[in-house]
Design goal:
The complex is a heterodimer of chains A (249) and B (332).
Chain A: E1 9-13, E2 17-21, H1 28-44, E3 49-54, E4 58-63, H2 70-83, E5 96-104, H3 112-118, H4 123-132, E6 134-140, E7 147-150, E8 165-168, E9 172-176, E10 179-182, E11 187-189, E12 192-196, E13 217-222, H5 225-233, E14 243-246
Parallel strand pairs in A: 5-13
Antiparallel strand pairs in A: 1-2, 2-4, 3-4, 5-12, 5-14, 6-7, 6-13, 7-10, 8-11, 9-10, 9-12
Helix pairs in contact in A: 3-4
Chain B: E1 3-8, E2 12-15, H1 35-45, E3 53-57, E4 61-65, E5 69-75, E6 78-82, E7 85-86, E8 91-95, E9 100-106, E10 111-116, E11 146-147, E12 158-159, E13 169-174, H2 184-192, E14 195-201, E15 205-209, E16 226-227, E17 232-235, E18 241-244, E19 251-252, E20 256-260, H3 265-269, E21 276-281, H4 284-304, E22 306-307
Parallel strand pairs in B: 13-21
Antiparallel strand pairs in B: 1-4, 1-11, 2-3, 3-10, 4-9, 5-8, 5-10, 6-7, 6-9, 12-22, 13-20, 14-15, 14-21, 15-18, 16-19, 17-18, 17-20
The chains are: A alpha+beta (249), B alpha+beta (332).
């Protein structure tokens, strides 16, 4: 006997949250469902909802149980879940595509060769594949404005390092488990540092503090160290030479 | 302009009730570690609890008034004086232009609060004045800073009966979505264990220590990173619990055994190093009732404010007072 598929799974989070989980691993359909369902909950504007977010494979809803009792949220969530197949729902509208100039390897991103070897590729082949990969902002978290990006091809499903790299700088592009993270500040990490950008995900002093939204797409296009130096010298807006355009639906 | 900072403890930050709505951008709420203290300060000064105050972790500072300023002191009791004369905690006072307010170390608890009439009027960022140290929003207050206040008129010399949330005790918790990763034996052991607050504690979280083995989940290392909420009790790799506080990360891969009720989280945050804590599971229905009662209690605070009667022990020059003037002789 095979157990029934438990997903989507609706569970409580602490005192004032509900979590809808679409799978126990990050997959393209589970992330699509998380983003689309969150967009629909936002659109519904239920009285008592305080905020929502989407993680890799779940949608989170925080609410005030005095205004919106747990039983009400749960029945509304089940109602919405039954309306359509969220795993194949269209992604939210208004998404953007960012193309970010990136130095792969060199002393700026010293773990590229190691990552390429772990993926069974030459460094040049790895750079070509990574540079051509158009990845989605799967979720933003851990630090302000910091995106988890993917999915990359299965060859890049490489484990995190056992030992943390003590510090990688802001704008570092790191790789593990078929995902990138683009760091919004200097941080230690167990992911491999494969690229370096001058893109700032979080600028608290700017009018637009956060550059990205979940569902946006990014492509990290190879440039030379010299080109990055030139970009850094002219980076008042913090985009690091990136271009941005709306994704036509 | 209002207060010039002449001395300051290492971890004093401006805090209000925090910023909501940026979880999807990886930014946690921040805000005061002891939210009821904000309500108490507001009640003492007859103003809104949405005003920002100075949160002082462990140690206060020395502040000079550049203009007459109403102040209130709440949260963890600390030694305090104006121009050398001791003043009451959990009370409001007038700090006249040129006078110096000195706030020392905590006597109990961790986080004391200095409130100004009109609130602390620093720049609002994304709807809040709360410093968020790990997100590099704002910074700790430093010597030489000026703490600005909003426009203000009102009374001083009021007090509130002190609460007793500053020495640990019982924390009510609810199950959360990862509680099921812990088996019944581990959950029973968790609620029958007396924990001590460990040395590692800041606005992100506080470590708990206990005798005996840790509290590991099944498949601890293979959990997909998932949303975190303040109050979550997270088990690290060794099964040591951390209670997560207002500056916690927004997502994380360590499993969480339970979540402390928002109304009990100030008691957790105010537990000093070595203080003891226990946990008790309540149902969601009980939690909603407890939380409603707590909210109602905070709303009643303005009615609980009383006039501060000077204790003769606090009057330094008692002998210079004319204490028997106006007494009528019984034999007249």
């Amino acid at each position: 006997m095979t157990p029934a598929d438990p997903f989507p799974l609706v569970r409580t989070v602490g005192f004032d949250g509900i979590l809808v989980t679409y799978a126990d691993t990050m997959t393209e359909p589970s992330n699509r469902a998380a983003l689309a369902f969150r967009a629909e909950v936002e659109r519904q504007q239920w009285k008592g909802v305080i905020e929502t977010s989407a993680s890799l494979a779940s949608t989170y809803i925080r609410f005030d149980p005095q205004l919106l009792p747990h039983s009400d949220v749960e029945s509304r969530v089940h109602g919405l879940l039954a309306q359509q197949d969220w795993y194949s729902a269209p992604l939210p509208s208004g998404r953007k595509l960012w193309r970010v100039p990136t130095v792969y390897g060199t002393d700026l991103a010293p773990q590229l060769e190691e990552a390429a070897a772990a993926a069974g590729l030459s460094p040049a082949e790895a750079i070509q594949r990574l540079g051509q990969s158009r990845v989605r902002v799967l979720t933003i978290g851990f630090a302000p404005g910091q995106p988890y990006l993917g999915p990359l091809g299965p060859e890049f499903n490489i484990p995190r390092l056992q030992e943390l790299t003590p510090m990688v700088p802001e704008g570092a592009l790191v790789l593990a488990i078929s995902q990138f993270v683009l760091f919004s500040g200097p941080t230690p990490t167990g992911w491999r540092h494969v690229g370096q950008t001058a893109f700032r995900c979080f600028q608290p002093d700017s009018d637009q503090s956060f550059a990205l939204n979940p569902g946006d797409e990014m492509q990290f296009e190879p440039i030379s160290k010299e080109q990055l130096e030139h970009i850094k010298a002219n980076n008042a807006d913090g985009t690091g030479g990136a271009t941005c355009k709306e994704i036509a639906e | 302009m209002s207060l010039v900072v002449h001395r300051i403890g290492p971890a004093c930050t401006v805090q209000d009730q925090g910023r909501s709505g940026y979880l999807d951008q990886g930014l946690s709420r921040s805000g005061a570690a002891d939210i009821p203290a904000l309500h108490e300060g507001a009640a003492l000064l007859g103003q809104s609890p949405s005003h920002a105050a100075l949160e002082m972790a462990g140690m206060g500072g020395e502040f000079e008034a550049t203009q007459n300023t109403r102040v209130a002191l709440t949260g963890a009791p600390m030694q305090a004086s104006i121009d050398g004369s001791p003043i009451a905690w959990n009370a409001s006072h007038l700090l006249e232009q040129g006078q110096r307010l000195v706030i020392g170390a905590t006597l109990q608890g961790n986080y004391g609060y200095l409130h100004l009439g009109g609130g602390i009027n620093t720049k609002v960022f994304l709807g809040s004045r709360s410093t968020h140290l790990t997100a590099k929003i704002g910074r700790p207050v430093q010597v030489g800073d000026t703490i600005p206040k909003g426009t203000d008129t009102g009374e001083t010399g009021m007090k509130l009966r002190p609460d007793e949330r500053f020495s640990g005790g019982l924390l009510r918790v609810v199950q959360s979505f990862q509680t099921g990763l812990f088996d019944d034996t581990t959950l029973d052991r968790f609620t029958s264990t007396e924990f001590k607050r460990g040395a590692r504690a800041n606005r992100m979280g506080m470590q708990l220590e206990s005798e005996g083995e840790g509290f590991a989940a099944k498949g601890q290392l293979n959990i997909l990173s998932e949303v975190i909420t303040p109050g979550d009790i997270q088990m690290t790799g060794t099964g040591n619990p951390f209670i997560l506080l207002p500056e916690c990360q927004t997502t994380g891969g360590y499993p969480r055994i339970a979540t402390v009720l928002p109304c009990d989280l100030p008691r957790a945050a105010q537990t000093p190093a070595g203080g003891t804590l226990r946990f008790e599971f309540v149902t969601l229905e009980e939690a909603v009732a407890l939380q409603s009662a707590c909210r109602a209690e905070l709303a009643r605070l303005p009615n609980r404010v009383e006039a501060l009667v000077r204790d003769p022990h606090d009057i330094p020059d008692l002998l210079s007072y004319q204490l028997i003037g106006g007494v009528i002789s019984a034999t007249d």
